[in-house]
Amino acid sequence: QKEVEQNSGPLSVPEGAIASLNCTYSDRGSQSFFWYRQYSGKSPELIMFIYSNGDKEDGRFTAQLNKASQYVSLLIRDSQPSDSATYLCAGPYNTDKLIFGTGTRLQVFP
Amino acid sequence: EAQVTQNPRYLITVTGKKLTVTCSQNMNHEYMSWYRQDPGLGLRQIYYSMNVEVTDKGDVPEGYKVSRKEKRNFPLILESPSPNQTSLYFCASSHGQGAVETEAFFGQGTRLTVV
């Protein structure tokens, strides 16, 4: 069974700090990864996707992919209370399925 | 507005009473799927469809059926619901033949309780 694993948290950071969310995966063939944000009681929404090794930046968000270590991370700079949510990492299984991690709950306190 | 619409949003039913959760998307997406979300288990795929008349099992298909007669609709059918199917259900769609290259758009969710 291909797996995507995340620490469930909660990860608590003060407002303005950098939040670091991590994800490991078991399928060495995986080429692309997604980070979704899910507010309580709401549906997931895409934050970032990354296809290649290295970093990808979009505003306050930076996704990092290290294929050799089978590791994906999401950094949120200048964290805001509105960033408090569950962050889901997702990776491919074959070409027709996405496998989601169980999510990391982030709490940003003022 | 581009969206995935699920109905109903909330449903309480009794064991064994057949029910259907509808899902419709207006983005002309080829790929549609159903997930259930349970505490501690995350999102797990139930069924998916890569195009009209093409459906396949996900990770937890037991007790569910789907159909894809039209591109925009992908209903989830529970022929004989049981309490272990109490969960939060999401329908999602994405462009292209696979789920792994493009963003998945999720419906608002359906909270199902089977008593």
Q: What layout of secondary structure does this protein have?
A:
The complex is a heterodimer of chains A (about 110) and B (about 120).
Chain A lengths: L3 E2 L5 E4 L4 E7 L7 E6 L6 E6 L3 E5 L2 E6 L4 E6 L8 E9 L3 E4 L3 E6 L1
Parallel strand pairs in A: 2-11
Antiparallel strand pairs in A: 1-3, 3-8, 4-5, 4-9, 6-7, 7-8, 9-10, 9-11
Chain B lengths: L3 E4 L2 E4 L5 E7 L5 E8 L3 E10 L2 E4 L7 E2 L9 E3 L8 E8 L10 E2 L3 E5 L1
What is the tally of helical segments of chain A?
0
Q: Could you say which structural class the secondary elements and strand pairing of chain A correspond to?
A: mainly beta
Largest interface chains and counts: A-B, 21 and 24 residues
Distance between the termini of chain B: 36 Å
Catalogue the unreliable spans of chain B.
none
Q: Radius of gyration of chain A from the CA trace?
A: 13 Å
What is the quaternary state of this protein?
Answer: heterodimer
Question: Explain this structure to me?
Answer:
The complex is a heterodimer of chains A (110) and B (115). Chain A is mostly beta strands. Chain A has strands at residues 4-5, 11-14, 19-25, 33-38, 45-50, 54-58, 61-66, 71-76, 85-93, 97-100, 104-109. In chain A, strands 2, 4, 5, 9, 10 and 11 form a 6-stranded mixed sheet that branches. Chain A has a 5-stranded antiparallel sheet with strand order 1-3-8-7-6, with no helix packed on it. Chain A is globular, with a radius of gyration of 13 Å. Chain A starts with a strand and ends with a strand. By secondary structure, chain B is mainly beta. Chain B has no helices and 11 strands. In chain B, the strands form 2 sheets. In chain B, strands 2, 4, 5, 6, 9, 10 and 11 form a 7-stranded mixed sheet that branches. Chain B has a 4-stranded antiparallel sheet with strand order 1-3-8-7, with no helix packed on it. The N and C termini of chain B lie far apart (36 Å). At the A-B interface, β5 and β10 of A face β5 of B.
